[in-house]
């Protein structure tokens, strides 16, 4: 598979980029070099290799959920720019 000038023009159009002829030529060459390099991976023996999303084992470091009392509404609304009936009052976004 190779990237043609037409492919570069198509992607540039989708990205709303205006490229000169020299840039189109340059990018098609660079993209083809990237694809050629990536093709080397097809030669690797991956039998017995488990699929992974990360090279290192990761684990969440989240704490356990614990139930506790909420802040009193008066304290929550102390820094509210505006409050109405125990709720934050915000400007209307729909008419």
Structural commentary:
This protein has 95 residues and is mainly alpha-helical. Helix content is 34%, strand content 4%. The chain has 3 helices and 2 strands; from the N terminus they run αααββ. β1 and β2 (87-88) form a beta hairpin. It starts with a helix and ends in a 7-residue tail after the last strand. The model has no long low-confidence stretch (mean pLDDT 91). Keywords: ATP-binding, Ligase, Nucleotide-binding, Protein biosynthesis. It is an enzyme of class 6 (ligase). It catalyses: L-glutamyl-tRNA(Gln) + L-glutamine + ATP + H2O = L-glutaminyl-tRNA(Gln) + L-glutamate + ADP + phosphate + H(+); L-aspartyl-tRNA(Asn) + L-glutamine + ATP + H2O = L-asparaginyl-tRNA(Asn) + L-glutamate + ADP + phosphate + 2 H(+). This is Aspartyl/glutamyl-tRNA(Asn/Gln) amidotransferase subunit C.
Question: Summary?
Answer:
It is an enzyme of class 6 (ligase). The chain is mainly alpha-helical and 95 residues long.
Beta-strand segment tally:
2
> What strand line-up does the widest sheet have?
1-2
Biggest pleated sheet: 2 strands, antiparallel
- Strand and helix order: HHHEE
| Average pLDDT for all residues | 91
Structural class call reads: mainly alpha
């Amino acid at each position: 598979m190779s990237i043609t000038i037409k492919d570069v023009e198509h992607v540039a159009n989708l990205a709303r980029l205006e490229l000169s002829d020299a840039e189109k030529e340059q990018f098609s060459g660079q993209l083809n070099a990237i694809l050629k390099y990536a093709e080397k991976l097809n030669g690797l023996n991956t039998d017995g290799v488990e699929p992974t999303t990360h090279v290192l084992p990761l684990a969440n470091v989240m704490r356990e959920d614990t139930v506790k009392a909420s802040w009193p509404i008066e304290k929550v609304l102390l820094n509210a720019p505006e409050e109405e009936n125990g709720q934050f009052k915000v400007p209307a976004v729909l008419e």
